[in-house]
Design a protein that fits this description.
homodimer, alpha+beta, Butyryl-Coa Dehydrogenase, subunit A, domain 1, Butyryl-CoA Dehydrogenase, subunit A, domain 2, Butyryl-CoA Dehydrogenase, subunit A, domain 3, 3 domains, 3-stranded antiparallel beta sheet, 21 helices, 13 strands, 55% helix
């Protein structure tokens, strides 16, 4: 501890500027708006029906400021600023998460479906009303029996050329739209995903249509059955409900027809011939939802960490024998271990998320964004969303426990943070499924065929088409690294654990090794005549681990670039230390694998643990500044135990 | 998967009988009572003040059945059945956990303080009224500024010989009694832990006194300030509050005087001379609270697992290409991995808990229970409580995620299970602190001095007194094992991963190695003149890991004894498989350590992972029976997605 006291203090304002990045002005505006309006769950929480109305009111106030349509085209009252709209959403996530999700459903999911799947007529007619929340809507994709496997939804939209109408129908209970935000109380129009049937019989696959569900007085439309999902683990300010359709008729124009049209006389046309590819192209445009949830998870984690780290600096327990002087919790190694590697990871995820936002913004603004880049972007969003939402859940829990009894009181925010973020791990794509999608992209090398294969078909595809590329490519890389790196006897000692290039090499090598390992296993299974399902299932944990390894490597690269790009020398040194902590904690947590694959020795593995301990001690004096840099307004943070130190004299040591 | 289909099915009733053990009748009675009364949180949850009254009413109903005083002496209306009372408490934990904690506070903590720290007069006067809940009371130990470090409480009890009274006083805000169950609304008498001051000046250490806080009409007594902790993350049916005293006078008889008396003229006497030892002796009698929380955590975990596993058997998603036949979630390896090792661990903890209950019962019933056994028992309770409560939190979370959107609905129980069990990790002893206590016992070899040393004094003690014993003892054992076990080249392959003796050897070796490692590090630090606090702090994570290793070894031994003791051959085989899964999953999760310490090769480490996968597939067909064996009545389980299969024809494959 003594050696580190000479490290110059970090400046929270400089951190804030760096973290806020290019959307700083928007973030500050949202911060100020949150602090003024103090949108926050009253304590005790009001009954759900009141809370829902309160959230609707807040959302309308917010929409009145014009910030809701930030990402919409200028001609419909927006600012064409997709990146800015996600930055605003992320910042809004410092406050009440029901408000956030209510906005996400309305402006992001529902509005996004109209914007991205519809055409000019839909935009003109609906976007302005959506942006003001005048027309509350639903994104009706998930069904009771069809969650992750969206392609299997049972709702049908059958074209009736005589009436020039579509007939929307729910054939069975399993096909009821379920968990739909805005459905239980407020939604009037729903973007409904249904099997499109034109010209008798066969489905053209899943398409999206706008279907009125309530009239202006809030009564269910004819043929529409609405019900309430009831109380949830969290997010009870959002009215999730169920929707069932009994032969509900909508005009031909109800079809959001950017990727497929049906002529008046019932001829189907789509520029994308392959139905699977069409489906995934449609889904791809909705990527914004995942990026938004990812950012919101990171923000919620920052709230929890700000509270827990300030508490850990202030709260004292026990001390040296014979002394009345108790020691701050954060000076204990066990406490540092519980909080600081997670803080480093939040920073890492933050930088990866900012790069993701920038790329998403590019995808929506440049002409002819390449399809391969689109695939990569979708893959990054899926992977980062999985890691960030799991990080939120585990970190908020750890923060709560680190605050003991005080952490259990609702006033200190962990109750709502935990409850509200929990569903992020399974909505907008279940994390386990998302990681399998990531692995599929890696195995098929982001080819156009992405999205056209289900998991098991991937097995055959990998075996048939990319096996050699994947395996040979990584075999060569591994070989080169083995020759130059620490596996050459006697060289390991010379390699510095704090060398970024070494850390990156380890994560890259792991990823390559895992990808080629999975490809080999799939090929071996198929070659020996096993059932493709069994072959796939046998590798499933390996597949998921591969995806994790890939995302973690990407996250380290993003953090590393952020450190390099920082031109304030003192701050750069501080971030570099934090990046080391992130990298080595990641390596430490998978050091079993690195040993199993002969990539690090057992001596080195123990060295990694020692290095993480040392880095925790080095980061500890800066922990306060690192959370201050998140710049969560005191009134928004709200937790009594998380307020900044009032008397700087009692300081952080 | 095919190989396992021949394994005979397990009989849920046989499992139930085995799990229920010697307290089967009591457990069945509580099950029936729960099912009849259907004590359960209404959905939506009522406002906290209504919920609190409802819980009080339930608790009184329950007390009217006479089950509350099961563990009290027969002469005061009890049955002298400590083991049975914990079995009843565990079973009650299948239902509403606010009711459980309300009962725990009243009958266990408050009643337990009167029973174990008081003497005959206190028993006669209070126990009968406590057992009927006629006299609601508090266990007022924790203070705002003094949580884990209870010896540092600031409340004082100063004897005034002129009036023959104690003066109870809260000197500052940090010394306010905080988070106290029953304090916000219902409590009338509080067992208050305070520094006892007799004859001027110096404190005799922490003692417990009975102090009235409310009169019969619910008004605060003079000098007593009561306030409400407000809404909490969970357990909102319990009225936690704060208590402050302003020179409140109580008669001399208010002191619970089993371990220390004060004569009328103000002479202090205690049969235990050392004040630290006296304090820990007093705390030791309250061990029942930890054992109860431990059992409750295991029960709550069983509820979550019953729901998630039944859902995983029924819910189908995706399937082989070109097939309409979707596959049950539980047939996917990733899903098995998420649920089945945790199920094996619940069984393991269950058996360890049953042994703990039996030993606790013995401690309270035999005369002259040896002090060393008492230390060991306290250590076991502390360690098992930490592991079981963390297991509950992580498992309930995993179960919730495995149920997707349905898992997020309050009706499916995870919301309350997560929220209510959360505080178990930090109350009745913070888990991190408890594990440090466990390590201290190991390092001091359960000597009498246990409890008289704070963590840092332990450093000096270990160095001064037990270093040689601890290190030499384990060095010899390690040497013997190294000579006979798998480190001898070429022998590893011959050792069967499924051999229980081999599994136990690994866990024992790890524990010994860690204990002697910590002892060596402490000695080296002190010998080189470092500050004892720094020496201790530098080892803190190692100390905690040591305690975990110790508890895990004990748990495996308990599971192993249960398997051996099972005389139904089919069931024994099933349990043996489950015990293998528990043991190998434990080894797998720490395989980095085993490799680092040369105890298993990297080849073997990979083999452990393969074995865990294979065991998951083997356990999968029996998962339904294994949760049916918990025998949670349907109405108590309550979750729609957790109800047993209605049509056995659609079965579990």
């Amino acid at each position: 501890m003594t050696a580190t006291e000479t490290t110059p203090a970090l400046d929270p304002d400089a951190i804030r500027v760096l973290l806020d990045g290019e959307h700083r002005a928007i973030r500050d505006e949202v911060r100020a708006g949150l602090a003024d309006a103090a949108y926050e769950r009253p304590i005790p929480a009001p009954p759900d029906d009141e809370y829902r109305e309160l959230v609707l009111e807040w959302a309308r106030e917010l929409a009145a400021d014009g910030r809701a349509g930030l990402g919409y085209p200028q001609e419909f009252g927006g600012q064409d600023n997709v990146g800015g709209s996600i930055a605003a959403f992320e910042t809004l996530a410092y406050g009440d998460l029901s408000l956030l999700v209510k906005c996400g459903v309305q402006f992001g999911l529902f509005g996004g479906a109209v914007l991205h799947l519809g055409t000019r007529e839909h935009h003109e007619r609906y976007l302005p009303q959506i942006a003001t929340f005048e027309l509350p809507g639903c994104f009706a994709m998930t069904e009771t029996g069809h969650g992750s496997n969206v392609q299997a939804v049972g709702t049908t939209a059958t074209y009736d050329p005589a009436a020039e109408e579509f007939v929307i129908h729910t054939p069975d209970e399993e096909s009821t739209k379920d968990y739909i935000g805005n459905a239980a109380a407020h939604g009037r129009l729903a973007a409904v995903f249904a099997q499109l049937i034109v010209g008798g019989g066969e489905s053209r696959g899943v398409h999206c249509l706008l279907v009125p569900i309530r009239d202006e007085r809030g009564r269910a439309c004819e043929g529409v059955t609405l019900s309430d999902c009831g109380p949830k683990l969290g997010l009870n300010g959002v009215d999730n409900g169920r929707i069932a359709f009994d032969h509900v008729r909508v005009p031909r124009e109800a079809l959001l027809d950017r990727y497929a049209q049906v002529s008046a006389d019932g001829v189907y046309f789509s520029p994308i011939e392959n139905p699977d590819r069409r489906f995934f192209t449609m889904l791809g445009t909705l990527i914004q939802g995942r990026v938004s949830v990812c950012g919101a998870s990171i923000s919620a984690t920052k709230v929890a960490q700000t509270i827990a780290i300030r508490h850990g600096e202030r709260r004292r327990q026990f001390g040296p024998p014979g002394s009345d002087h108790e020691v701050p919790l954060l000076s204990y190694r066990a406490h540092q271990r519980r909080l600081l590697p997670a803080l480093a990871k939040t920073y890492a995820l933050h930088f990866a998320q900012q790069e993701l936002i920038a790329e998403l913004h590019r995808a929506f603004t440049v002409d002819d964004y390449p399809e391969r880049d689109q695939r990569e972007l979708e893959t990054r969003a899926a992977g980062l969303k999985a890691l960030a939402t799991w990080h939120a859940v585990s970190t908020i829990q750890e923060c709560r426990e680190c605050c003991g009894g005080a952490g259990y009181l609702a006033e200190n925010r962990f109750a709502e943070l935990r409850a509200d973020t929990d569903v992020f791990t399974t909505f907008e794509g279940d994390n386990t499924i998302l990681l399998q999608l990531v692995a599929k992209s890696l195995l098929t090398d982001f080819r156009d065929e992405f999205g056209e294969l289900n998991q098991i078909e991937t097995v055959g595809f990998v075996v048939g088409q990319v096996y050699e590329t994947v395996v040979e490519r990584s075999a060569v890389r591994e070989l080169v690294q083995r020759l130059t790196d620490d596996l050459v006897p006697g060289r390991e000692d010379e390699l510095d654990l704090l060398d970024r290039a070494y850390q990156l090499d380890l994560l890259r090598w792991r990823e390559e090794h895992m990808i080629s390992g999975v490809a080999r296993r799939l090929k071996r299974g198929i070659d020996s005549g096993e059932d493709p399902f069994d072959v796939f299932n046998d590798c499933q944990d390996h597949v998921i681990a591969t995806a994790r390894a890939h995302v973690e490597r990407e996250v380290l690269e993003a953090f590393s670039r952020a450190v390099e790009g920082c031109d304030d020398e003192g701050l750069r040194a501080g971030l570099d230390r934090l990046c080391n902590l992130f990298a080595l904690a990641a390596i430490e947590s998978d050091r079993a694998w690195f040993q199993e694959h002969g990539r690090i020795s057992s001596t080195r593995a123990k060295g990694v643990t020692r290095a993480v301990n040392a880095l925790c001690a080095e980061v500890r004096p800066h922990a306060g500044a690192l959370v201050d840099g998140f710049a969560i307004p005191d009134t928004v943070l709200h937790a009594p135990i998380g307020q900044p130190e009032r008397d700087p004299g009692t300081g952080s040591r």
